[in-house]
Amino acid sequence: MHQMFKILKYSFYDLIRSRWSYVYFLFYLLLGFVLLFLNNDVSKAVITLMNIIIVLVPLIGTIFGIMYYYNSREFTELLLGQPIRRSHIFLGQYLGVAGSLTLSLVLGLGIPFLLYGLFKSNAIWDFGLLLVTGAFLTLIFTALSFNIALSHENKIKGFGYAVLLWLFMAVIYDGLFLMSLIIFEEYPLDNFSLIATMLNPIDLSRTLILLKLDISALLGYTGAVFKSFFGTQWGFLISIIMLCLWTGLPIWRLVYKAKRKDF
Fold first, then answer.
1. Is the pTM of this model over 0.85?
2. Beta carbons of 141 and 158 less than 8 angstroms apart
3. Under 8 Å CB-to-CB from 257, ≥6 apart: which residues?
4. HSE of 176 in the Cβ direction (CA atoms, 13 Å)?
5. 106 — phi, psi (to 5°)?
6. What is the pLDDT of residues 235-258, one digit of tens each?
7. What b-and-e string marks burial along 109-142, b requiring 16 or more CB atoms within 10 Å of the CB?
8. CA gyration radius for the chain?
């Protein structure tokens, strides 16, 4: 375990020193200041941020994760020659990448909102949920990208599958979901809608934030169905458990794949 934390620390500091981490941090820092300047209202700024974070955070997590794996392949092979568990090597690298991205997100958005007086605002819990879902999406998609990279030695294939995964989760899945609702509109689709939402971490995160902001009326009948489930304490708890599963399963497969992969 000590070895894993040493690798985590190295990966974390390596990425923190990277210019791309500064770009990622500065992007959110400027975005926070600009949104607060334009909206002059924390609640409205949170709604705008949701639309950006739900799409951008998974993309950045996917790209950073797969780039780091391929770029550090030689270092990884060097570590594999040492008496260190494979699971510790890859978990340390994964947590280093995901941790640095999460820190950039939290600090980049947290600083402008804190300076604006977040603790005096009623939107503090909404903003907190936004950061929590952003952290979950970072952990999930970074883990998925590491899984893709471990499964494909070819860098071009790995990048292609990673971008395709993000595109499917962020865009294509919603299109298929809406088409299903239209085609089978004559049938009761309450349970189908709930299950389909929980099977996509991006949709699940978006629904949680929309309901917390109490603007589910914009979703019409579907919003009423979601509010009757996700709006309850049990619904919220199940949603968090699903996000934890979405995080845990790719990490488990990462460890499983790392132990059996022939490098």
1. yes
2. no
3. 147, 150, 151
4. 13
5. -65, -45
6. 778 888 899 999 999 999 988 888
7. bbebbeebebeebebeebbebbbbbbbbbbbbbb
8. 20
